[in-house]
Design brief:
With 392 residues, this protein is of the alpha+beta class. It folds into two domains: 151 residues, Four Helix Bundle (Hemerythrin (Met), subunit A), CATH 1.20.120; 222 residues, paralog of FGE (formylglycine-generating enzyme). It is 33% helix and 13% strand. The chain has nine helices and twelve strands. The strands form four sheets. The protein has a four-stranded mixed β-sheet with strand order 10-9-8-11. α7 packs across α8. The longest helix has 31 residues. It is globular.
């Protein structure tokens, strides 16, 4: 990875930590606690968990004489690291009325001070520490996006439909081109290489053979998706994967998340409040099942993650996480790191689909064409969209 001076390292650390706290500025104290669904976490938990990461993996092990801020915080803010110890069940993160929001911010300040103290002490193992810190910072950036998407989901259930981030790029409509890009049959290199940070699931650069195919340089728009709905797309079982059809019926889904039809017009909840649907804006908040059904309706398909990466230099990406037709599996020579850090990615390589790109909620400098996001196929709450492909 790229090495920084101690000053550069701390500047970057504090910039990212401060960005997290800037996301809190529009919130009321009451907004920090609710957890209306298992797949979302409250803002207070995100603030504590990202801080715990630095305490657990850096300070406890590398700052001599370090005293934890609170003996119970590891139990409260551990997410899924079994080697670290017991933790609050994920579904119960929203019952943590204690500690207070104020205490969690004090926890963040305490850990920030100790990280600064450690890196200013000229430790002998600076390279190891910088590697751990870079992982922690990228981890925090992941949670910054989750902070936004989780908050949006929670506040969407509030009858007041509050405005939270009214003036950000998150809510702006997006332009779309309308061209098909052709890629020839051949062997393509896939995976991360070079300097800079990447996750372990991007490593194992390897060659794949791709048949000739075409891929769009645009993402599906709301207008295109409304046409799918009006053509009874949610009522035609022949368009859906079997599990997708079962999910649609059980969940009674009939539109993307946050859409609501009022007096014949479509509206959608945004972080700027409830708005009439912009038909020319890029579609968002669809599950893999919906994406696959739409592609079937169009007589096309979703690209594989390899097709996506091979073509990615030819189109603009980064406004929606794009569902691919690839299961989340390890690359050749993938190896999990030792210890609890090894639980970061590898153990999730089952029953999930890969998404490529980034989204309007992704943190600055936290995207690259080899980035492999992954979610279960029924989830809608991320800023997910659809890019189509077809075989030649």
């Amino acid at each position: 990875m790229e090495l920084f001076t101690t000053h550069d390292t701390l500047v970057r650390y504090l910039e990212i930590r401060n960005y997290t706290e800037s996301l809190c500025e529009p919130l009321h104290t009451e907004d920090y606690i609710p957890q209306p669904a298992v797949f979302v976490s409250p803002p207070k938990w995100h603030l504590g968990h990202t801080t715990w990461f630095f305490e657990e993996f850096i300070l406890k092990k590398h700052l001599g004489g370090y005293k934890v801020f609170h003996p119970k915080f590891s139990f409260l803010f551990n997410s899924y690291y079994n080697l670290v110890g017991d933790r609050v069940e994920r579904a119960n993160r929203g019952v943590l009325t204690r500690p207070s929001v104020k205490e969690v911010f004090e926890y963040r300040k305490y850990v920030d001070q100790k990280i600064t103290e450690l890196f200013q002490s000229n430790p002998e193992n600076i390279n190891e520490l910088e590697t751990l810190l870079e992982l922690g910072l990228n981890h925090e950036q992941q949670h910054q996006e989750l902070f936004i998407t989780d908050t949006k989901y929670t506040l969407s259930l509030n009858p007041l439909k509050p405005e939270v981030y009214p003036n950000t790029k998150i809510n702006k409509p997006l332009e779309a081109k309308k061209q098909w890009l052709k890629l020839d049959e051949g062997i393509y290199d896939i995976g991360f290489e070079g300097d800079g940070f990447c996750y372990d699931n991007e490593l194992g650069r390897h060659k794949v053979f791709l048949h000739s195919y075409e891929i769009t340089d645009w993402l599906v728009t709301n207008r295109e998706y409304v046409q799918f709905i009006e053509d009874d797309g949610y009522e035609r079982f022949d368009l859906w994967l079997d599990e997708g059809w079962a999910w649609r019926k059980e969940s009674e889904v009939d539109a993307p998340l946050y859409w609501k039809k009022i007096e014949g017009k479509w509206f959608t909840y945004t972080l700027a409040g409830m708005k009439e649907l912009d038909l020319d804006a890029t579609l968002s908040h669809v599950s893999y099942y919906e994406a696959a059904a739409f592609a079937e309706w169009k007589g096309m398909r979703l690209p594989t993650e390899f097709e996506w990466e091979a073509a990615s230099d030819q189109f603009n990406w980064g406004t929606r996480w794009e569902w691919t037709n690839s299961a989340y599996l390890p690359y050749p020579k993938f190896a999990k790191a030792e210890g609890a850090i090894g639980e970061y990615n590898g153990k999730f390589m089952i029953n999930q689909m890969v998404l490529r790109g980034a989204s309007v909620a992704t943190s600055p400098n936290h995207s690259r064409k080899t980035y492999r996001n992954f979610f279960h196929p029924h989830y809608q709450w991320q800023f997910t969209g659809i890019r189509l492909a077809r075989s030649i």
